[in-house]
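Hi everyone,

Forwarding the result from last night's run.
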Amino acid sequence: MDKIFIRELALRCIIGIYPEERREKQDILVNVEMHADLRKAGRSDDLADTVDYKAIKKAILKLVEESGFQLIEALAENIADIALADEKVKQVVVTIDKPGALRFAKSSAVEITRP
């Protein structure tokens, strides 16, 4: 299966379970790997035959800007749902990094795979 990536989408949102995490927006990095058959698009050179990753990115931005999730797992699940709403996407892998969440660590992260 072919893949389309959205890599290191840098966003800010309210995320976390502790009161200090819910006061101000925090940085997150979102990576989305979408599995789809891209042969038709490769032959036709037509956007209608592929995954419109710009539209998916816009939907992710809207979700994150309006979100108030406590867990990055819940945010990842909602992002996966956005990607899978495109019928061409057969599987999605979503990784969310939360830089600075753990002292002495570059980030904490979660990765989910959904068919």
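Strands lie at 2-13, 26-36, 91-99, 107-114.

Cheers,
N.
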